[in-house]
Fold this protein.
Amino acid sequence: MFRLRADAPGATIAATIPVAVEGRIVRVPQGASAAAALLLAGLPSSRDSAVAGAARGPYCLMGVCFDCLAEIDGVANQQSCMVRARPGMRIRRQRGARPLEAE
Amino acid sequence: MRRCDAIVIGGGLVGTAIGYGLARAGLSVALIDEGDIAYRASRGNFGLVWVQSKGLGAPHYQRWTRASAKEWPALAAELEENTAVALGLEQRGGLQLCLSDDELDKRRAMMAQMQREAGNFGFDYKILDHAELKAMLPGLGPAVVGGSWTQYDGHANSLALFHALHQAFRAKGGRYIAKATVTEALAAPQDFRIAAGGETLVAPKIVLAAGLGNAALAPVFGLSAPVRPQRGQILVTERTAKAWPIPLGSIRQTPEGSILLGSSEEEVGFDTGQSPDIMQKIARRAVATFPWLAELQIVRAWAALRVMPPDGLPIYDESRRFPGAFTANCHSGVTLAGAHANLFAPMVARGALDPQLAPFSAARFDVPAAR
Amino acid sequence: MTVDLAIVGAGPAGMAAAALAAELGLATLVIDAEAAPGGQIYRAVEEAAEGSPLGADYLAGRGLAAALRASAAQYRPGTTVWHIDPAAPQGAALSMIADGVSETVTARRILLATGALERPVAIPGWTLPGVMTAGAAQILLKSAGIVPDGRAVLAGQGPLLALIALQLARAGAPPALVLQTTPRRNYAAAARHLGALWPGRLEIARGAALPLGLRRHGIAVRRGVRGLRALGRDRLEAVAWAGGEVAADHLFLHEGVIPDTQISRGLELAHTWDAAQLCWRPVTDAWGGSSLPTVAVAGDAAGIAGAEAAALTGRLAALDAAARLGHLGAAERDRRAAPLRAGLRRARAIRPLLDALYRPPAAVFAPEDAVILCRCEEVTAGQIRRAVRLGAPGPNQVKAFTRCGMGPCQGRMCGPLVTALIAGERGVPVAEIGPYRPRAPYKPLTLGALAGAQFATEEASTSPR
């Protein structure tokens, strides 16, 4: 669905970092957001909404729409477009409402 | 100029509940309301249908609140049947949690006093300790010492109540006039003329339910409504999986999954601003109660003004100078919706308040004349 | 921490204001929610290479970023303002959070340089994964050199649309189709502003190059498009319009940008409805001063005028701040302002033409009943119209009845749509309908972060009633 442009400064393997999207390793450029990682990983949608389970994906990529909510490193409902990808980051789709972490 | 059977000033939870009750009884009702931006306690409340804290030292208020809680299921069912709105009423009891021995002691004493004052009417409650609470409430923090539980408490979707009352009021033939501040009012026994929203309304009955606006309106009708604003702030979290079986006094979760956290009691006049340090106090108490709440995002917060009579108890009155003029004032518009629609409105329709409401008259504030 | 000037946002207005304010001797703090300066238009500009597909205009932002870095202004990236008390006794108090830790800074003056956001385009199917804003496509390209794979369709109008099509083409991923929605009547309306042709000649030259560029890259363009719809079940599969349909993997929408008024509304600054740009903007004086004595607004947040104008209004606000805070005499301030004002006149000259030419079609403000208006809470246009018919006079009552605006975006996306819808339903001008009233926190923060935040205490009680 999305790819690195061929001659991007970040296109060489050396300039990419590995993140895990739904458990699968994806290499993304330095400076990419977690939302960009989700898009590069080719997932058809990045969350199931907490209201009625509708499939949603990022819309604005600038922190306004909140449709890019994802679970990052175990923490639910983060605006993935506002989080910079770091090596080893674990990104998962947000499935509905935040689960309970009580004990 | 339009004539109707009753004018209700104020389209909040109190006004619409009374207006609905009157319309349902067959009266033609005009409900006058302000515009989109107004103090509107009805948009800022918590959603509790709460009994256990109401009426310490005032058994008549305890009984009125219990009666309202008893009316709630019928009102909710009726509104749900006649509108497409789900009210989400749950009345499976409620807990007030205490975070220190001192709080718990005070709570224990309060419950005992409520029971004594209830007399034959009865008031059942349980004081639970930490272990008993922990069994009911996953993730309970060690700071929680105990709590009080009664079977009478519950919660509902207060905005849904508001929406449903408006819809049902209209469906019963009620006329809702928004953006209509009262510009002129003339009172004569059983003959009231109101200029609002560019028209003149005339009716033999009028109910002042304008919240904080009642203070200025009341004297025109030979009534007194010495209410003052009291600010409360609330935090709302992101939706999360269902956490608790019942509401917890200052913590409740909606059916959608959002968790509401309250509250505060601030005497700041007509100021609906928020303050981070009060928000922080609420957050700290919430996190002390359930440490796992710390992870949750606060997605919304607000401040709203309670309509607060001098002693905290409702003011219900009928004008002696201008029979036909009534007023209703309280800070518990959600809890008392049952009573307002099903008990108060019929009284207004009949033309007189029942003797049981006499202790709620504003006359109780009159300073005795010096002799 | 106490500063003279706290600037919210590090786009062209924020960067330019900060560098000048610091130069004039003001203790300046820039609070930026992003990780690096540039805002949206100059996003990731510090890492951009010569020959970037984004073009020379974009690279010009490097100077502003460098000037900010070199200045004495403190720059706090990754930091989000969640509450402002403009009238706190010791000075305006801004509460901000970074990495889960919240702190409060006191400032003698605040400059909001929060920029703009895309006008929401609520076509049927706009919530399908695969539908994004044209700005989002540009963000991917700028920040990470990422381009869409498969068939991409761009739809809407405005200078940004053709620019992005060209940037994508230069990056090796030309869009399959550009659907231009400019209504025919706009051309006649734009013709009334031909007086802007000479002062705005640079912008016009740039703008004229765009369609030529598209043709050179072989990108198909359809004009006068109406009835846009995004089709698909759980993901975008096709884009349809009156008279056509095409399979698509990506749809990028754009009907211009509008000021980000979330904080200016939260502070209850006076706003005015801009009839030419069809958006709300804060009322500002010639220096960006707002209706609150301690708050100014600069850049697109005060009214859409582009990056060049943003840097100039940022500098004007910095001059004014210096004068108000005693670091600059009024005469000197005015002297320095003169060339900035001349530049501003020139930068703004093209605006009336652009506003008229790219005026969104009426359909943008009147989505069909089935279309979701509030994306967060999934409230449809029809539900909102019903709430208005029930008597709700404005967005806040509509919110109470429908939950529209109660989601995490706090009405940023749906606000403009709801206001327009209510006006349309009630048959009154939009200017008569008020906005949502945003409250703190302006952006979400966790209970834990709030519980641990640092600020002064006050007298009040939280009651365990």
In short: The mean pLDDT of chain A is 89. The helical segments of chain A are 34-40. Chain A touches chain B through eleven residues (CB under 8 Å). The radius of gyration of chain A is 14 Å.
